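Milestone M4 deliverable, item 7.
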Amino acid sequence: MRGLIATISSLALVAMTAPALAQSATKIGQHNAWGTYSYQASGGKVCYVLTVPTDKQPPTLDHGDMFFFVSQRPGQQVSYEPQFIAGYNFQENSKATVTIDGKSFSMFTRGKSAWVENAAEEPVLIAAMKTGSDMKVQAKSGRGNTTTYVFSLKGISAALSSIAKCK
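Output delivered:
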């Protein structure tokens, strides 16, 4: 699992920055299902927590590498920004839905990435992540397949605490 998270964290860096600016992440720690990382970008230090799904549906599809992460970019005044990244392009103009303990959050998609549609709900999602045990993400692929992923939330509170002082 740790090797997979390290590989996926490298993919996150590429997805988050231009190829010429891609940096090498330093692992800060591991908190159950969540790894913590940091790297130096042109806009300042970036810290993030990252996990991979424990379940992917339907099992017959090639989902590629999937992960969910929450980033802090103090130099850009970004605090705890959740993002879901798929191993495929989402259906154009589609939404992804995050569900924790019956509470749903809508995410807009672009390419392989999805972000919380209403930025004011980001802290509410983070709070739900801290109190929940699992998180379900449902999305639609560019081919029209409905996909569902389950992520463990075990360790998310400790992981977020470890990047709280990212500067």
